[in-house]
Design a protein that fits this description.
Layout (H helix, E strand, L loop, with lengths): L1 E5 L5 E6 L8 H23 L6 E5 L2 E3 L4 E5 L4 E4 L1 H8 L5 E5 H12 L7 E6 L7 E4 L2 E3 L30 H4 L1 H12 L6 H9 L3 H25 L3 E5 L7 H14 L7 E4 L6 H20 L1
Parallel strand pairs: 3-7, 8-11, 11-12
Antiparallel strand pairs: 1-2, 4-5, 5-6, 8-9, 9-10
Helix pairs in contact: 1-2, 3-9, 5-6, 5-7, 6-7, 7-8
The structure holds zinc ion (ZN).
Length: 298
C-alpha cells in the first residue's frame, strides 16, 4: 500500500508505504488500511499543525464509489466492504472519497502528470494485466456499472491465448508486461527472463527478442486503435512496467498505431509521468474534489 499527504495543488507532501497484510485475510487488509490512514492523519497534524480535511482511497477490483463500497477484489478476497464508512469512522468523521486504483491513477496522470491540460485522454498501464482509464473534462468515466476502460479485454487475436476473464485472445494475454515476460522466457529458454530483459535484448539486436517484441507491439497497436476509434482521445498515456522500456517501446508503437489509422486523428502517445505514486496522488485529488463539490452544494 502507498499513502500520502497531498496539498490542495496536488503536491505530494509526505509519502509512506507498507504491506497490505493480505496473507492474514480480507479483514486484516481492511484493518491495515484504516490503521495506516489514521497514522498518516496524526502525522499530518503533528508535522503541519493542521489535520487533513478529507481522505481519498483507491482500491483494485470492482468499486462502487457512489455507495462507498469495495465490491469485489479477487486478490484481496473482498466482497462488499463498506470502506468509505469504515474509514470515515476511523478518521473521526472526515469526508472520504473512494475510487478504483487504475481510474484514480489515470485521474492523476491526466490532471497533474503526463496528460496535464489534456481535455480528453486515455491512460493505459501495461503491467501484470492491462487496464484503462478514460479521462473526459477533468474526470474519469467509470461507465454505468463501473467497467469502462477495460481495454485489456478487447479481443485482438480471436481464438488466441486463454485469458483470466474467460475469453480468448484478449489484449492483456499478448501485450501486458507479464505476457511479454512469458513469451520471452519461452523464446530465450530462460524461465527467469522477463519483459525488461526482452527490451534489453531488443536493443542489442537479438532477433528472437525483436520477434517477441514486435508481436506484442502489433497486438497493442490493434487494441489501442480500437480504443482511439471509439474515444478520439487527445493524449494516450502508456504506463506500467512495459513502458519503462522507453523509446524501445514508444518508437515502434507510434509507428504501428500510425500505420493502422485511416480517418482517425492520431493522439500524442506519451509515457506516464507519475510512476507508482499515481494512485496515491489520484486518491488525494479525489479527496480535494469531494471537498470542492460539497462546498458548491453547501
Ligand atoms: Zn480477457
Amino acid at each position: 500500500m502507498k499513502a500520502a499527504l497531498v496539498g490542495a495543488d496536488g503536491a505530494l507532501l509526505y509519502e509512506a508505504r507498507r504491506a497490505t497484510g493480505r496473507e492474514r485475510g480480507p479483514d486484516a487488509v481492511v484493518e491495515s488500511i484504516l490503521g495506516f490512514a489514521a497514522e498518516l492523519h496524526a502525522h499530518g497534524r503533528e508535522r503541519y499543525g493542521t489535520a487533513a480535511v478529507a481522505a481519498g482511497v483507491a482500491v483494485p477490483g470492482i468499486v462502487d464509489p457512489d455507495r462507498g463500497l469495495a465490491v469485489y477484489a479477487a486478490n484481496l478476497g473482498w466482497r462488499d466492504v463498506p470502506l468509505r464508512a469504515l474509514l470515515g469512522e476511523r478518521l473521526g468523521g472526515l469526508p472520504v472519497a473512494l475510487g478504483h486504483d487504475v481510474r484514480t491513477g489515470g485521474l492523476a496522470e491526466g490532471r497533474v502528470g503526463a496528460g496535464k491540460g489534456a481535455d480528453r485522454f486515455l491512460f493505459v498501464p501495461l503491467g501484470t494485466g492491462i487496464a484503462g482509464a478514460i479521462g473526459i473534462g477533468g474526470a474519469i468515466e467509470a461507465g454505468a456499472h463501473g467497467y469502462a476502460g477495460e481495454i485489456g479485454h478487447i479481443v485482438v487475436r480471436p481464438g488466441g491465448p486463454a485469458c483470466g476473464c474467460g475469453q480468448r485472445g484478449c489484449l492483456e494475454t499478448l501485450a501486458s508486461a507479464a505476457a511479454v515476460s512469458r513469451a520471452w522466457a519461452a523464446a530465450s529458454g530462460d524461465p527467469e527472463a522477463d519483459a525488461a530483459d526482452c527490451a534489453k535484448a531488443v536493443e542489442s539486436g537479438d532477433e528472437r527478442a525483436v520477434r517477441v517484441w514486435r508481436d506484442a507491439v502489433d497486438a497493442l497497436a490493434d487494441g489501442l486503435v480500437t480504443a482511439l476509434t471509439l474515444l478520439d482521445p487527445r493524449t494516450l498515456i502508456i504506463g506500467g512496467g512495459l513502458a519503462e522500456a522507453g523509446e524501445t517501446l514508444f518508437t515502434p508503437l507510434r509507428a504501428a498505431v500510425e500505420e493502422r489509422v485511416t480517418f482517425q486523428k492520431l493522439p500524442a502517445i506519451v509515457p506516464a509521468a507519475l510512476g507508482d505514486t499515481a494512485g496515491c496522488l489520484g486518491a488525494g485529488l479525489l479527496a480535494w474534489d469531494l471537498l470542492a463539490s460539497s462546498e458548491v452544494s453547501a
